[in-house]
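Ticket #4471: structure export looks truncated?
Reporter: QA, pipeline team
Priority: medium

Steps to reproduce: submit the single chain below to the structure queue and open the exported record.
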Amino acid sequence: IAQLPEDKKVGHFYLVAPWFTLKPLDSESEAIAKPWITNPINSEQVTKISQGIECLFSDNDQYVPLQKNVKIFQNEYNANTQIFSKRGHFSAEESLTEIPELLGIIKRTIV
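Actual output as written to the record:
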């Protein structure tokens, strides 16, 4: 995003289990998250180049504090947020290999 010319636009961003703050992590998870923790994101640039941001959260995500992150994405990125019940971190750890609702969200936003 930071390298796109200023006059370029992208469609929508679809973010699954997005975060700016995390719950305490073990060292392995912290190493995985480090690139996202150490690289700043320019919210003004992101909102300027995109047509919209759609965020999917779970009410029992073991890594992402729900309310803090929903608030950040809504307030700083004007994102549409959806909260799903008992999807964890939307990963294989929860035996989750598909997010059927995502196709509907994509279809709704590209029309």
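Status: closed, not a bug. The export was complete when the record was re-opened. Leaving a note from the reviewer for reference: The first strand starts at residue 10 and ends at 16.
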